[in-house]
Amino acid sequence: MSATVEIRRRLSDAFALDVAFTAPPGLTVLFGRSGSGKTTILRSIAGLVRPDAGRIQVGGRTFFDAGAGTDVPVQRRGVGYVFQQLALFPHLSVRANIEYGLQALPAAERLARVDAMAASFHIAPLLERRPDRISGGERQRAALARALVTEPSILLLDEPLSALDHAIQSQIMADLRRWHERHRIPVLYVTHSHREAYALAERVIVVEQGRVAATGSSHEVLDHPAERALASLAGFENVFDAAILERQERAGTMRCRLEGTRTELEVPLTQQRVGDRISLAVRAGDILLAAQEPQGISARNVLRGRLVDTAPQGPAVVATIDAGARFTVHLTPGGADAVRLRAGADLWLIIKTYSCRVLAR
Amino acid sequence: MDWEAIWLTARLAALVSAILLVISLPLAHWLVFSRRRWTFLVEAVVSLPLVLPPTVLGFYLLLAMGSRSPVGRWWTSLTGQSLAFTFEGLVIASVFYSLPFAVQPIAAAFAQVNHTLGEASATLGASRLRTFLRVTLPLSMHGVVAGAVLSFAHTVGEFGVVLMVGGNLPGVTRTISIAIYDDVQALRYERANETALALLAFSLLVLLAVYGARRRSWALAPTA
After folding, report:
1. Nearest CA of chain A to the CA of B22: how many Å?
2. Cβ within 8 Å, pair B126-A77
3. Domain identity same for A325 and A288
4. A20 lies in which domain range?
C-alpha cells in the first residue's frame, strides 16, 4: 500500500501549491518552513480541502481525481489525521474520544480495540478522564490512539510533537514506530524542525513555496543540499556568498574569499573555476572554538574572531562570532566553559576543509 | 391573580419554545456553516422582529391570516376557521416574534465551537448529522438552553403582537400582559400588581438561569 499524490491548488494570488510525489509504506517527512503548503497537502489527502486539479490515490483507492470527477467525501476516505491542535473532543472522556471512529463495530469489539490501543500507547489508566485533565504528552498519545484505532489506510500527522519536550517526543515516536512495524501504511509527518526530520525519517520530501524542492532519504536530502535555500533549511546555520580565488588541484582544495570580507576559507575542490561565485555552507556544530591560537593542527582553516553573543538553546549554547563574517557555532555547556565565552573576547574558529559544502549559485 | 391568563400564557410560551427549538437548530446550523453568499439576507430577515415595532409585525401577520390572503384562505379551507383571534394564530405569530431570541444564542454557540473538532469528527468517519449530534450540539448546550429560555420568556412578555393578532379573548388569546393591561384600564391596581410581580420574579429567575449556565459552559451538558 502506498500513496500517490498529485495536487494543484491556488492558495492566493501569489502562491499556488503544485506537488507530485509517492509515499511508500513507512514514514515520510514533509519538511519545510511554515506557510510552504505542507498542511494543505495533508488536508487535501484527507478531503478537507479540494484541489483544483490532480489525483490522490491511497492503497489502490482513488480519493480524488479531477479528470474523472472523483471526490470521495472525508467521512468515507478512512484516513487517520492528527491535527496540530489535536482536536480531542473536550466534552468526551479519553475512552469516548478513542471510540469515536468505531461506531460501526459492535460494543464488545469497540471495547477490546480501545483497551488494546490504550495499552500500547500507555494511556490505559487515563481512559475515563476528560482531555483537559491529562498532560500534553498524554493528550498527544490519546489523539494518536484515536486516529490509529480506526486502522486507517494512511496516517497524516501535522506537527504532532512540536509542542512537547524532546524526551516525551522520543517516547511517543518509539510507540508509533512499534505500532507501525505491524501496520505497514504510509505515514506522512509534517514538520518544520530538522531535528525531527533527522530523528524520524526514512524518507524526506522538502516542500518550498508550494513545490517539492527535493526528495530522498533524510541523509541525502539534508546532508547534500542541492541549493542554498535548502542548506539553510536543513541545518547549515552558516551560509556565505563566496568567490573562488585559487584551485589547488593536487591538494584537492580551493581557496575562497567570503564576499564583502577579507576572510578566506579552504574548501573541497569542485568543478567550478577561479572567479566563479559560489555559496559555502557550514554546520554550526562542525566548527571548533579555541581560546588561544592553536598550533600544529591539521585543520586548514583557523580564523581569528571576536565573540558577539551567546544564547542557550536547550542544553546547548549558541555562540555568534565575528570573524570578518558572522559565524554561528554550537557548543556543549562544558565546551563553552572550556573556552571561557565572554563577550568581546578573542577566539579562534577552527573549520576542517571537508566541513565546508560548496553550492553552485 | 388571573390564573386563566397565566395558564394560557404558560401553554403558549412552552409550545412556542418547543417549535422554535425545532426550527432554530437547523436554521442556526445553516446560518453558521453555510458557504452561500446570501446567508446574510436570511440573517437580516430572522432578526427583523428585534427592531420592528410589535404592532407592525402584528399588523402584517393579521393581514396574512385574514380571508383576503392566500395563507388565510388555505388555513380556513383546511380547518374551517380563521387563524386570527385564535390560540393557533397566536402561536404562529409568537414563533415569528420570538425567532431571533432562539436563533441568535444558538448560532453564536455553534460559531464558538472549534471548527477543527468538526473536521476531526469527519476524518473519523462521522456523517454530518452525527458530527452535529455528538460534537456541535453538546458543545453548544449553553446556547441552546439560552435560546429556549429566552424565547419562552420573550413570548411570555409579548403584548403588541398578541393584541393585534389575538385580541383579548379570555382563555383563548388573553395572555398575562394583556390581563395586566386590562386590570389597569379597569382601575383594578391590586390585581394588576399581583400578576405584574409574578411576571417580574419569573423574568429575573429566567435571566439568572441563563447567565448562570453561560458561566460554566457545560454546566447543563449531558455527562456522556
Report:
1. 23
2. no
3. yes
4. 3-229
